[in-house]
Design goal:
The complex is a heterodimer of chains A (172) and B (219).
Chain A lengths: L25 E8 L2 H12 L2 E4 L15 E4 L16 E6 L7 E6 L5 H9 L4 E6 L8 E5 L5 E6 L17
Chain B lengths: L1 E6 L5 E5 L17 E5 L41 E8 L2 H12 L2 E4 L10 E4 L16 E6 L11 E5 L2 H10 L3 E9 L2 E7 L5 E6 L15
Parallel strand pairs in B: 4-7, 8-11
Antiparallel strand pairs in B: 1-2, 1-3, 4-8, 5-6, 6-7, 9-10, 10-11
The chains are: A alpha+beta (172), B mainly beta (219).
Chain lengths: 172, 219
């Protein structure tokens, strides 16, 4: 990127992210529902979202009656990750498993999740939920920052190939 | 032995030791017997290629069985989930925390009130226009709690073609208008509640969009 070509506010591009890491990226949004069919209908017909049940063993457990629903909010890959920049998927999650809207944030793959969480609690974050399913895709913790903003922190398993379009970073 | 698996049904790649293969595909939920295996190589490039399945036409939009996500049209960003909005009680503390703990790059939005700044946050690689360069993550805002006169803590932003038309649809499907169209830092928004009482912003696509931006693409 030619930084001299940036003529609009703030007169510089965002900083570079040269580390092979997705730490701190907001990768999705989790939206609670009370009535499953009503919520699904709202997002499908108001915003044109596409919906499918979250594959089993990935993240929060669910039931047939109150499933976790993955929503494509714009152009998406076969994995349902977005295929163009600038937007993310959402998940509709039953209120008993997600009491208020929360972001789905990726944290470092190279640091144990407990250590990441410890660095946050030192600064006033609170742990509000934990879960560990049998499969390592579910290595996550839900925290709240000092102002009550809720974040599901997800540590990606080693199965990432770094070929995935969403795993790109600022290489030289 | 470390191998690279490719789901034959959906093309999802998985790097795993052959003694520790996930029993189901994290992309499409099919069982691991559908995985094609190849040795993991240092180049991190797959030799096995699976053509992704095509989206089905005329499927029931309320059916949640696995399928390939539908095509989204060109020339519109209607419905895309574009920003998160965190509220803060102390701007300096919030900015310092997110910069130091999560490596964000945070600037005041153009034209924001310096007493109650709306802070714009890059959370990963971006382009010169301060939009993400890489797919499947978003930028967002840190917003002063005192400026949320709705008391509803709207938490995310959905981009729409037209605010009023979207409000009509939202109300038809159980949503509720909280705050009609207003302008903040040069952009037009409204605040609604979804059918479940979650508050969110509608953001109308700005007239300055050229449709050549990476984030404006369809497909």
């Amino acid at each position: 990127m030619n930084e001299k070509s940036v003529t609009n506010y703030p007169y510089r591009p965002p900083k570079k992210y040269p580390k092979k890491s997705l730490h701190g990226r907001v990768r999705g949004m989790m939206i609670p529902y009370d009535e499953y069919e009503r919520a699904k209908k709202f997002y499908v017909y108001t915003f044109g979202w596409d919906v499918m049940r979250v594959p089993q063993g990935v993240f929060l457990e669910d039931t047939d009656e109150r499933p976790n629903v993955m929503c494509a909010t714009g152009p998406s890959q076969v994995s349902w990750e977005a295929s163009v920049p600038g937007h993310v998927w959402a998940q509709l999650v039953a209120r008993e498993r997600c009491s208020k809207p929360q972001v789905f944030m990726e944290v470092s793959m190279d640091v144990p999740l407990e250590d990441t969480v410890a660095s946050l609690t030192e600064r006033g974050w609170k742990v509000v939920g934990n879960s560990e399913l049998d499969e390592d895709w579910a290595d996550f913790t839900v925290v709240e920052d000092p102002d009550g903003n809720r974040e599901l922190l997800w540590k990606c398993p080693d199965s990432r190939t770094w070929e995935e379009p969403e795993a790109d970073y600022d290489k030289d | 032995m470390l191998k690279l698996y490719t789901c034959y049904k959906c093309g999802f790649p998985i790097k795993a030791d052959d003694r520790d293969v996930p029993p189901r595909c994290p992309g499409c939920n099919c069982s691991s017997e559908w995985f094609l295996a190849e040795p993991y190589n240092e180049q991190e490039k797959r030799r096995i290629h699976v053509d992704p399945p095509e989206p089905e036409e005329n499927r029931d939009p309320m059916n949640i069985d696995y399928h390939v996500a539908k095509k989204f049209p060109y020339g519109t960003r209607n419905g895309r989930l574009r920003r998160f909005v965190f509220q803060y009680s102390d701007a300096d503390r919030a900015k310092k925390n997110y910069e130091e703990l999560f490596d964000w790059d945070i600037i005041p939005s153009e034209g924001t009130d310096p007493e109650h700044p709306l802070l714009y946050c890059a959370t990963g690689p971006g382009n010169a226009n301060w939009e993400p360069r890489v797919p499947s993550f978003i930028y967002g805002y840190l917003k002063d709690k005192e400026t949320d006169e709705t008391g509803k803590e709207p938490f995310f932003v959905i981009e729409v073609d037209n605010i009023e038309k979207t409000i009509e649809k939202a109300e038809e499907f159980g949503g509720r208008l909280i705050k009609p169209r207003f302008t903040e830092c040069g952009n037009d928004y409204a605040i609604i509640e979804d059918s479940e009482g979650n508050a969110l912003y509608l953001w109308e696509t700005p007239s300055t969009v050229t449709w050549k931006e990476p984030e404006s693409q369809g497909g």
